Amino acid sequence: MDDERDRDAAGRARNARPRDGLGRPMAHGASGVERQPEGIVRTPPQTLAEAQDLLDRGRPFHAHEVLEDAWKSADEPHRQLWRGMAQLAVGLTHAARGNRTGAMSLLRRGAGNIEPYRGERPYGIDIAGLVGWAHEVADGGGVDSAPPRLLS
Questions:
Q1: pLDDT tens for each residue of 95-123
Q2: Kind and range of the H or E element at 91?
Q3: Whole-angstrom Cα distance, residue 104 to residue 21?
C-alpha cells in the first residue's frame, strides 16, 4: 500500500533500508553504512573536498550523492559539469560492484559531460585528468588503482 512507503518530509518516496558501502540496499534491520544527507547545498570547494574524501575512503556511491546535490542545485553554465562529475562517481560505483557494462557507459557519459569544460577548468577541477582516467577505467584498466583526483 502506498501509505506504507518510506517518505521524506515533502512526501517524496524514499527507501529507508540501510545500504552497504557501495550503496546497495540491505535488509531492514541490518547494520549499514551511514548515508549522505540529501539536498545539501555546498559551495563548489566544499563539494569537491567532501567528494574527494569519500572517494579516498572507497565510498564512490556516497561521493556520487554529494556531487548529485551540486548538480541539482547548480545553475547554468556549470550544471552539466556537476552532472558529469556525479556520473563519474556512480560509474566508479558500478565498476566496484562488478557491473562492467554500467560502469563503462556511465564513465564515458560522465567524461563527455565534463569534456566541454576542459579549457575553463572550473573550481580547479582536473578535467583532462578525469577524462583520461574515465576512459582508462572504461577501457578495462585502472579500477583497482587509486581513486581519481578531482583537483590538480
A1: 989 899 999 999 999 999 999 999 999 99
A2: helix 79-97
A3: 21
